[in-house]
Amino acid sequence: MTNEQRSSRVIGYLCALGAGAVWGTTGPLSTKLYAEGAAITGIGFWRLMLGTAGLALWAVLFHRDVFKVDRKGLLLMGVLGGAMVALFEVAYQFGIAGAGVAGAAALLYTAPVMVALVARPLLGEQLTPLRFALAVVVMIGAAMTVTGKSAGATQSAIALPSLVAGIVGGLLAAVSYATTTVLARWTVPRYGSYRMLFWEALGGVVILAIVLPLAGHAPAPPPTSAAWLYVFALAAGGVVLANFLFFAGVRRIEATLTAVAATIEPVVGALLAFLLLSQGLTLVGWVGLVLVVGGVSGGYLSEGREAVGAAQPEP
Length: 315
Known about the structure:
mainly alpha, about 325 residues, globular, disordered C terminus, 12 helices
């Protein structure tokens, strides 16, 4: 390996870690928005709208081919992908508000488990004993993280209905994320990752703009200048910067290693919640978080080794 190749791989790891770290700020920033009086249902809409505007501006300046898409791509990415993005943006906010930052992140990372379970009937992928065991580990870890809140945390006195809503929201966010992942396995090789990111984000904005008012929750603008700043940070970070970093990592290192590095997200979220919001975890909670990260990382690494082995030629 040349020095140039080594440097490229180092940059790839740093980009992937950066993407996970930026995604980890979503929970703390959203919690700050709640404190400013922003409605849970409106946060996802405004951050997605600003993020989509940023993606559109980048496309106009550098990648105008992103706007060209056929009817099938529009239906898959704009309608189906947009519906999943819209569901994620609302459900994850309920997950953060009800289950806490660490709990919502742990629930979100059950998505790879769901992908593993549906990959066999939908994509023909095998559900090996190792994948099943890692799925069980992740599920147990998520449950431990949700229930392992520190008694001194500000969110520990949350009412049971809110906690249930948080768990349901976190699991729905995981379902939408898993569905998007399965969809991406078909669309990205045909349309490209940037085109999918833009069209599913745009579709999500349109769907939320229609559905939220019909449900009686029209997305009111953030009530204060500080709230606008938090929304802008969520859009610039979670929607735009993190995805660009993730794609930059994938271009330089294997997708498996990129995904493993990005699992730093729930760790960063839990640490920020502890430092900034006093949302602490007990030992059980931290062990659960380690199980989630370890189970997801183990699954990705296992798939990476299988892919490398399958790619090797016969002697």
